Known about the structure:
By secondary structure, the protein is α/β, with parallel strands linked by helices. It has a single domain (20-185, 237-243), classed as Rossmann fold (3-Layer(aba) Sandwich). The protein contains nine helices and eight strands. Helix 6 (148-157) links the parallel strand 5 and strand 6 (162-163). The model has no long low-confidence stretch (mean pLDDT 97). It binds S-adenosylmethionine.
Amino acid sequence: MEYFYELFLDLPRGGPGDNKSTRKAFSYLKNLPFEPLILDIGCGHGVQTIELARICKGKIIALDNYQPFLDILMQNAIMEGFEDRITLKNQSMLEMDFKNDTFDIIWSEGALFVMGFQNGLKKCFQLLKNKGFFVVSEAVLFLPNIPLPLKEFWDEQYPDIKDIESNISIIKNEGFDILSHFTLPKACWIDFYSQMDEKIKELKKKYHDKKIALKIFESFEKESKMYDNYSDYFGYEFFIMQKK
Ligand SMILES: C[S@@+](CC[C@H](N)C(=O)[O-])C[C@H]1O[C@@H](n2cnc3c(N)ncnc32)[C@H](O)[C@@H]1O
């Protein structure tokens, strides 16, 4: 894991995304309290956490199970004067111990897959207040009949990946209204992987004699190549939901 984290610590964020999309997703949330209580699950470096603090006056609990990401988040929060509105929580999302009916908004960019999409919906439904909002970006398939190398890749990485309509039907079955959904722009993926590819080049030199490290970096190079080759087939979809 240490090589994995060394790669990600130096990247600006933990997955594809941008502030414009965070802002766009937030714009669908209506009739919010003046200071909503927000939970950001799998916040990582917290780029979206800080953007949420810029967008509204809410208090945000930023949850991740890797302390160095939370430390980066707090350094940035202090620089922007948000330290009183952002609370760090080092805890696994699989072991969240908040009381039911607590949050006005739950946010999770590119991280809910750790719980599994449906499990994540069930858990967050309980944690949200009545009419609370849930915003998630989730890996989805855009086209059927995906090429074999891509199928093998997803079978290994996230066999639960689905198309947009299947996710929407799960969302509705779990008691949410779907307010909107949109696809994260391709530019976010291209930026993310170009920064990752640069960092991998550097790390491959640094750890040229460490087999385990090289294997890890090669697996991320493979992921980046998958996007180069098959970006029409998959991406992230933002789903904006409200508890009924
Ligand atoms: C793909 S990154 C997304 C980070 C951030 N939301 C972003 O968009 O930049 C996934 C995040 O989930 C966190 N994570 C992985 N497993 C977790 C767990 N069991 N509990 C809490 N966080 C976890 C990782 O540490 C990482 O920060």
